TrEMBL record:
<dbReference type="Pfam" id="PF08340">
    <property type="entry name" value="YicC-like_C"/>
</dbReference>
<dbReference type="InterPro" id="IPR013551">
    <property type="entry name" value="YicC-like_C"/>
</dbReference>
<feature type="domain" description="Endoribonuclease YicC-like N-terminal">
    <location>
        <begin position="3"/>
        <end position="156"/>
    </location>
</feature>
<dbReference type="InterPro" id="IPR013527">
    <property type="entry name" value="YicC-like_N"/>
</dbReference>
<dbReference type="GO" id="GO:0004521">
    <property type="term" value="F:RNA endonuclease activity"/>
</dbReference>
<comment type="similarity">
    <text>Belongs to the YicC/YloC family.</text>
</comment>
<keyword id="KW-0540">Nuclease</keyword>
<feature type="domain" description="Endoribonuclease YicC-like C-terminal">
    <location>
        <begin position="176"/>
        <end position="290"/>
    </location>
</feature>
<protein>
    <submittedName>
        <fullName>YicC family protein</fullName>
    </submittedName>
</protein>
<dbReference type="InterPro" id="IPR005229">
    <property type="entry name" value="YicC/YloC-like"/>
</dbReference>
<dbReference type="Pfam" id="PF03755">
    <property type="entry name" value="YicC-like_N"/>
</dbReference>
<keyword id="KW-0255">Endonuclease</keyword>
<dbReference type="GO" id="GO:0016787">
    <property type="term" value="F:hydrolase activity"/>
</dbReference>
<keyword id="KW-0378">Hydrolase</keyword>
């Protein structure tokens, strides 16, 4: 089964006095690009976490975020009262010198000054916190990959339908192809008959006619396009990691369709080619999301 590069996973793990939330979101990208937002307390584990994500996710633009919330009665936050007293004294002195009133809201003013609120972080990450962090990350990655699998199934159904549409369009070429050769031949003969006082070798004309019609022959393009359609489906069945290969195959399909258009020389065939191009462009757009 195909995997999409688009996905989202989230996990919440609770331990005494702390709740750890991990979120992972991925979008399509040619390479693996991980953007991480990690609280200071978990910073020492960031490299290990990146390696863990890279070993599973493989490709895509990944946004990785960790949130840590204290839920116990104990708190590591306190007010720096001596510093706030010093700030208050300086504000009062400033007010006297400038002849302006004191603030109406001392709380709001003092709390906006730097370092008035102290956050006492633990000296090191505990084993319990580290285990909870990695468990949450693994669960979030699992959720992301499940999301990718669901999206991949939708892509597989989409590609199957589009390839089938191109096959039907290709099969509709045959009647117009036979009609096209007859019309081309008749048009050339009609134009020659309109030219007065011109003699020509009918055998030579026949040879030139055959040569000209062979140049407009599209059998090879039809066969190669049919082969590319089969190869696309076979590659898709191989499952994960086929995104780049499917992109290359779709480019080859485009070359054959373009050649069909340039050789068609027939209004109805041109319409069919335009429809093929429309189906193929939709495939190319969605192939960018495949792992």
């Amino acid at each position: 089964m195909l995997l999409s590069m688009t996905g989202f996973g989230k996990s919440v793990v609770t331990i005494p006095n702390k709740k750890i939330t991990v979120e992972i979101k991925s979008l399509n990208s040619k390479q693996l690009d991980i953007s991480a937002r990690v609280p200071a307390i978990f910073r020492e584990k960031e490299l290990e976490l990146r390696n863990l994500i890279a070993s599973v996710v493989e490709r895509g633009k990944v946004d990785f975020q960790i949130y840590s919330e204290s839920i116990g009665a104990e708190t590591t936050v306190s007010l720096n009262i001596p510093l706030m007293a010093a700030y208050k004294a300086q504000v009062e002195e400033m007010a006297r010198q400038l002849g302006i009133p004191w603030p109406d809201d001392w709380y709001g003013v003092l709390l906006r000054f730097p370092e008035t609120v102290k956050s006492e972080l633990p000296a090191a990450l505990t084993d319990e916190e580290s285990e909870a962090l990695f468990n949450a990350t693994r669960e979030a990655i699992d959720g992301l990959m499940q999301f990718r699998a669901k999206e991949g199934k939708k892509l597989e159904e989409f590609f199957t339908k589009k390839i089938s549409n191109i096959r039907e369009l290709l099969s509709s070429v045959d009647p117009y192809e036979k009609e096209r050769v007859v019309k081309i031949r008749a048009r050339i003969e009609e134009n020659l008959s309109k030219i007065d006082s011109v003699t020509f070798d009918k055998n030579r004309l026949e040879q030139e006619m055959i040569f000209y019609i062979e140049k407009l022959d599209i059998n090879e393009e039809k066969q190669r396009l049919a082969q590319h359609l089969n190869y696309f489906m076979e590659t898709m069945e191989h499952g994960n990691g086929q995104g780049k290969k499917l992109g290359f195959i779709s480019q080859e399909m485009g070359r054959e369709i373009n050649t069909l258009g340039s050789k068609s020389n027939h209004a109805e065939l041109q319409k069919i080619v335009v429809k093929m191009k429309d189906e193929l462009e939709q495939i190319k757009e969605q192939v960018l999301n495949v792992m």
